[in-house]
glutathione-specific gamma-glutamylcyclotransferase
Amino acid sequence: MASSNENGHASPDGRTWRSYFPDGDLWVFGYGSLIWKPPPHYDQRVPGYVNGYVRRFWQACTDHRGTPENPGRVVTVIERGFWETLNDPLAHLESSSSAARVWGAAYHIPASHAEEVHDYLDEREIDGYTVHYTPFYPFSGSKASGSDSKPLTCMVYIGQPTNPQFLRDPARREPQDVAEVISRGRGQSGKNTEYLYLLEKALEGLGLGSADGHVTDLVRRVKAIEKEDEAARDEEAAERDLQKSLSRSEEEAHRAFQNEERV
């Protein structure tokens, strides 16, 4: 696994990402909200996975899905080697080799907008996330093409265990505790439950049939906490928002592609 943060390779003007993307365009991997709320100006969206990580709702959120007084919970990915040293009640969900993959979507940003999108993402992911680079394996048809084709290098934002928002206290990483926090969280982007339901539906929408076990386990727990009618409303709202967001994003991507072709 190749991964480095912004203190890694340096380019002449200090923009690290250019060392990984010398042609000036940019690939970004999303494993959380970027799956259903893509970056602007992308012209390709490719489902696929990265290896060597585990996705967990172990990152506190003090802005989009929570507040400084009542932080919500959002996902980060954790390097598998470090995760294996932690006590995770859901470790059995990651026992198979296929579970070592974190599925999501990669976006191609043309060189004409790469700087702008990089700055946008830095602002969007400001709450504890840092930039890293890792191989991404596109998904094609009925199988992932990682063994048949060269992976893409992707930029990815990760909430490292050293960042202040990572849940260091094992008690706060217990699935039921995470579910209870999500059930009552709310931030500037809306309810924390919406984030969870959107992630589950966005992962299902990648064409793989289901979200990962950690996400579906949390959905089950949060639904048990919420009143049945409230959970149903939140889920229906998430479904509508997902379809609206992806439809709008596809139109924007099509326009971006056409503009690049004319240039």
In short: The mean pLDDT is 82. The chain has one domain: 17-225. Helices lie at 17-20, 80-83, 114-124, 175-184, 192-208, 213-225, 228-262.
